[in-house]
Design a protein that fits this description.
Length: 198
């Protein structure tokens, strides 16, 4: 039966996906997410991408990264870069993972029938088009249930399908209220980082 199933891969833009779920008012249960999307076909790979602050002794995202690494995800990280905003003069951190996601998706595309891209970033429109030219169907997983929408219109139009994660919240999430009740078992992320129950 496995031979007849569509070969699929998940590409999760961690910061973008976290921000979308947080805006919708729930936390992602990554075990449930893997089970849900794994039922859509033969799961070849589930990638999770995030930038990390290198010089911190402890990062609140580290427990998430470690858990994902041991539980079926291929985690791709890189250090954030610090820069000074020319307008405000404030120090800011940058950790864009677009190039890593694009390279991995294109390299794996010969072995896939379907890609699920968990991001609303319009910069991925060219990637979606390139995958489609290779015969790979692309589903964008983001949300239009927020104000403003978390997915760019151009990206949504280019995709073969669109899944609003608000429609999946009961299957891949848990209410943010769980966070305070189970505080000892997980780590709170900052506004720019993901949170996970490990």
């Amino acid at each position: 039966m496995g031979q007849d199933r569509h070969r699929i891969a998940l590409f999760i833009d961690g910061a973008n996906f976290y921000s979308t779920a947080k805006t919708l008012g729930f936390d992602i249960d990554y075990r449930k997410l893997l089970t849900e999307f794994g039922s859509y076909g033969q799961l070849i790979r589930a990638y999770y991408y995030t930038a990390m602050v290198d010089d911190q002794e402890y990062s609140s995202i580290r427990p998430l990264i470690d858990w994902l690494d041991y539980n079926g995800y291929a985690v791709v990280t890189k250090p954030t870069k610090e820069y000074v905003d020319g307008v405000t003069g404030r120090r800011k951190l940058k950790g864009n993972m677009d190039v890593e996601i694009t390279v991995d998706a294109l390299e794996l595309s010969a072995h896939l029938d379907q890609v699920y891209l968990f991001s609303g970033d319009g910069d991925f429109r060219s990637l979606v088009l390139a995958l489609q030219r290779r015969g790979v169907r692309v589903t964008i997983v983001s949300s239009v249930s927020t104000q403003p929408a978390m997915v760019s219109d151009e990206l949504r139009r280019q995709a073969d399908e669109f899944i609003d994660i608000a429609d999946l919240s009961t299957r891949i999430g848990r209410p943010q209220a769980d966070r305070t009740e189970r505080l000892p078992r997980f780590v709170r992320g900052t506004a720019d980082e993901e949170t996970v129950d490990v």
